[in-house]
Amino acid sequence: MDLEKFKSIIQRYLDGKLPKEENKNVDGWYDAVSKDEIAPFKNEEHKARVKQAIFSRFPPSIQETRKQVGVIRLRWLSAVASVILLGVFGLLFFYQNPQALFRSNAVESISLTQISTHPGETRELRLPDSSSIFLSGNAQVRFDEHHYHENRKIYLDKGEAFFSVQRDTVHPFSIETGTLSIRVLGTSFNVNNSEKSKYITVDVKTGKVSVGNRQEESLYILTAGKSVRYDKESARYKLFDSDPTYANIWIRGGILLNGATFEELCELIYNRYGLTLRTDNIDTDTFSYSVLMPHVQSIDQLLHMICNIHQINFRRERNEIILYK
Fold it and tell me: What are the FecR protein domain coordinates in residue numbering (predicted)?
C-alpha cells in the first residue's frame, strides 16, 4: 500500500467515514502497535524518541489528560497522520510492515481512479456530481470514484487543468497538488502545476476559491479576476490581478505567458502539441516570454513569433523543432 492510500484511510477514519469492517482494521492496527505485536522501532531508545515526538504534537489540553484513553486514541492517530505527512513515521513503520494495517481477511483498500493525458492531447472529464475538469496535455489527476459524493477531493499530480465545479455546501470540493490545498463550493478556476515551472498558479474565473497548504488551509481567498502564484523553491506566495476571461484561454486554443522561461516554453509546446523544442548552440538562459495570443492558428504561427523576438530561425525534424541562428 502506498503512502497516499494510507493517509487517505487515516483521514477517513478520523472523519468517521470508513465502513464498519475497515474501521475495525484500523483499530486492530492501532492495538497491534500499542501492544508491540509489531516492531517498527530499531530499539527501545528509538521507540521512546518516536513516541515522545508524537506526544509532543498533542495540544496542551490533551497532554494534561493523557490518561483518557478514548480521547488519546483519536488524538494519537491524528498525530500519526501528521508525522506521516512529514515522511517520518510512514517510512519507519509502513514501508517495513506494509501488511500490518490490513491483513489477509481485510476488505479491499481504497483505490484512486487515475486519469492522464498524452502530450498534445486535451480531455474533458465529467465527475459524478456533473462537475468537470479540462485536462491539458501531459496532465494527471486522481480521485476516489466510489466515494466521490462523500469526499470531493481531486489530486492534481501534474499539468494544467481547468475546473468547473457544481455547488454543494455540504461537500466542499478540494484539490491537492502535493504542496497547495485548494477548496471551493461552486466556481470555475484554473490550476497550473506544470513540472518544469517553478510555480504553481491558481487563476479564478468565477466564484470564490480558498488556497492554502498543509499547515494552514485558508491562507488566501481568491475571487474572480484574482490569482496567486506559489514559488516551489522559496515557498512564497504572490497575489496579483488577472483577467478572468483568460483563465481558461488554453481550452480555446490560446496562449498566455507571463515572464515564462525558455524551459517553460518548451514544456508548453510539448504538452500542447507533442513536439520537442530545442536549440542549436543558442544560449537561452536570458530568454523570457510574456505573450498573449487569444487563438493560435498553428504551431508555425507561434514559432515565427518566437523567432522574430530573438532574430533566429527554426526547422522541423520529425517531432523536434530546432531553433538556430
Answer: 114-209
| 266 three-state secondary structure | helix
DSSP 96: T
Q: Which pLDDT value is given to residue 2?
A: 55
Residue 189, phi then psi, degrees to nearest 5: -160, 165
Cβ atoms of 191 and 178 closer than 8 Å: no
Q: 3-state class of 316 per DSSP?
A: strand
Q: Return the H-helix or E-strand segment holding 151.
A: none
| Amino acid letter for position 216 | E
> Chain centroid to CA 314: how far?
36
| Residue 135 CB-half CA count within 13 A | 25
Q: Are residues 301 and 317 in the same domain?
A: yes
Count up the domains in the chain and report the number.
Answer: 3
Span 245-263, pLDDT tens digits: 999 999 999 999 988 999 9
Pair 106, 22: CB distance under 8 Å: yes
Torsional sign, CA 286, 290, 293, 294: positive
First vs last C-alpha separation in the chain? 52
pTM of structure: 0.65
Per-residue pLDDT, averaged over 210-229, amounts to 90
Alpha-carbon 13 to chain mean position: 22
Residues 221 and 124 in one domain: yes
Q: How far apart are CA 30 and CA 40, in angstroms?
A: 13
> What are the pLDDT digits (tens) for 120-163?
999 999 999 999 999 999 999 999 999 999 899 999 999 999 99
CATH code where residue 143 lies: 2.60.120.1440
